[in-house]
Amino acid sequence: MSFSPDNALFHYDLGLAFFHLSRYDDAANEFMAVTALDPELKRASSTLILSAMTNLALCLEKQGNLTGAIATLNPSVAITTGILYNMGRFHALAKNPAEAIVYAQSAASLSPQSEDVIHLCGRVLMDLG
Fold first, then answer.
1. Helix%, strand%, coil% for the chain, nearest 5
2. Which of 14, 17, 52, 56 has the fewest beta carbons closer than 10 A?
3. 20 contacts 58 by C-beta, under 8 angstroms
4. pLDDT tens digits, 38-52
5. Left (φ > 0), alpha (ψ -120 to 50) or beta: where does 23 sit?
6. Which 8-state DSSP code applies to residue 95?
């Protein structure tokens, strides 16, 4: 493993260490370094990026910056909604309506105005009869 400044895992692990030491400023800087390596979240399917964003939001919360915490997590909401939507869609296609409704409800709680999510919820309800 490389300990170079462009190694996201190094920054992530260092951020976790700082977080557990209650050094939230240092932890936030390390988690920001992880997301800075992929600022447009092109690799956002990476659990490392999503975890870094979540932990950065936790650091901001510890610092009393709830507005910053919300802004940090906003991009991940769309990603998470997409994952939940597709899991619901796959379960609906597999004729597993009980599982599909759980994912559809979760997606709807994150993005209630999404046309895709509304369509999925309707499809699951139709399948349930």
1. 75, 0, 25
2. 17
3. no
4. 665 555 546 777 788
5. beta
6. T
